[in-house]
């Protein structure tokens, strides 16, 4: 009998582990993958260095006026440095608050600080009484915010008319109000759509499908042209308020469909069990169904909110001074004309950071819910 | 034994407690409130319109409009034409941008979605970057970006970006060569139609045969042959009956060929790139939704990679993809109304914008505009639902 010997351990071939192995497996596994990789590297090589050069190395970060970004020599030949971030810096206050008077801007800041603190408390994992914060955010906070922003002479706050509100502040306001009012409206519509009462159901379906079927811009036209005709003569509704009503109804119709998804996803047993212990319709919905249904659809709600937030840019078309229109207005200023790319990049970054972080949050909730579901 | 036989009567139900009665009451109240609210709005509107001297009715549609529309690929419109003509011009321009946008967005979306799942690290990262970057930036900003920032730095007509004289890009828009039918073109059309019918017959026959005997038929090569051979023969006889009309520089602008105005190009680029990012995510989740076992089973029975993709993966993935794809198509169509921001003469710009400003008949005009979008949405939904039912799992 031959003696059996254990073969010495050998290292895996160098081409299958480590950096080389990774490169071979992920970049050059087949001939067409190699082709794609080379093409990709070429594209990156031709795009990234000029962008870095323009946006960072040659960029102007500080100075007094546009002559540091763009100047003429004695032969009237135009020279231009890289990106003129100075332009953003100079206009930053306008981009943030619009025409809101400088002396009163603390009120805007305070409004957002209160909001930030409440939201932060909401997300502390072991903090009890979260429902109080929820109620405060949806009921108390809008009232406080209204008095702070609009002003009230008896409280000693000057009245600031809404046409002076603008910039990122207005964008956040529109988005925030959109979610605060659209979610309750959506819940009501979703319940109505699943109601046993045929008249209520038909009305809700018609309402939801009508607003979902038309573009937001026609809703805003509707709000700006038709609403004044709808109310009795002499009643004047603020343009901003009209827009908010339009946005809320529009967002509410989409929210209703999201909530309906959650209601449909709950097993029938939940309804039957609630009825078996003798709960009526409202208590069944409030205590058993809604808490579960809304939990399931948090990702959907966040995604709808992201959509609504991006769509608030459309108010620029009916001349509300949101972030987009604020940047456009600054570009029409003769002293600062001609830096469109910087402006676009600034707006894009603002929206991108906000929407991307929200979408990551919704993804995290989704994964967490999926794990909880599998247990 | 004495058994009590008298029947216990159910307690007499209070009529106010019965579910039926309550449901009727609640519904009547809701109905009453809605009707009262609508009535209030209608009466207010009527008073306001009377007080402001706004006329009503659809009579204005046959009046002459006092404006020109610059871009008219389909029908003419000048100041002498009526408002209803402007309505149709806008409608056709909206449909044009929606159809082209859906076409482009689908292609780009599928490519990016598949690329996101590529085993090439660079390609998958690249597609991921594309999706995350475009999804999270407002569409209106993207439209402005393409229109004001990108298309404005294009060269003038004289030194336009030129590919082979058939594809020219400059400040005035995108110019393409237009195929012009010549003598004998009808025969070509006829031959094409005939070929398609023959191919359908062969396809049905081969499918039947495969179901019966299991033998496959090389349908692709046959179809190509049937399509190409008559085409070549007729082209040879009639000396190629299609010529390309090239855009030619006359003065400051190009004449001839097909012209896509910069507004349309910007709108199309923004709409299709933006929607493609969403479609890509749908495609990706659709492909990921197929269990690995399907692929493994398919390779176990000896299908090739191409066959697995074509026969196993795509048909199943499509079932998951179609419903969200439908809502993306709807979104694209509705978003095409953002054309108004860059003055592309679509329905909202021409009709709900210019015509509304001139006539002041907001109620009628917005009613018509909304109806158009509602019917467009409905049409797309119906088409996609039909396609969905074709692709759906056939339960036996």
Per CATH, the class of the domain at 85-100 and 160-374 in chain A reads Mainly Alpha
Question: What do we call the CATH topology of the domain at 83-149 and 263-380 in chain B?
Answer: MetI-like fold
- Biggest β-sheet description of chain B: 4 strands, antiparallel
Question: Oligomerization state of this entry?
Answer: heterodimer
Count of runs of 4 or more consecutive helical residues of chain A: 14
How would you characterize the overall build of this protein?
The complex is a heterodimer of chains A (375) and B (396). Helix content of chain A is 68%, strand content 2%. Chain A is an all-alpha fold and 375 residues long. Chain A has a domain at 85-100 and 160-374: MetI-like fold, CATH 1.10.3720. A two-stranded antiparallel ribbon of chain A has the order 1-2. The model of chain A has no long low-confidence stretch (mean pLDDT 85). Chain B is of the alpha+beta class and 396 residues long. Chain B has a domain at 83-149 and 263-380: Orthogonal Bundle (MetI-like fold). Chain B has 11 helices and 8 strands. Chain B has helices spanning 19-51, 83-116, 121-135, 139-150, 185-213, 219-237, 262-288, 292-300, 305-335, 347-359, 362-391, and strands at residues 161-163, 167-170, 173-176, 178-181, 242-245, 248-250, 253-255, 258-260. A 4-stranded antiparallel β-sheet of chain B has the order 1-2-3-8. Chain B has a two-stranded antiparallel ribbon with strand order 4-5. A two-stranded antiparallel sheet of chain B has the order 6-7. In chain B, a hairpin with a 2-residue loop joins β2 (167-170) and β3 (173-176). Chain B is extended and about 105 Å long. Chain B starts with 18 loop residues before the first helix and ends in a 5-residue tail after the last helix. The model of chain B has no long low-confidence stretch (mean pLDDT 83). The interface between A and B is large, with 52 and 52 residues.
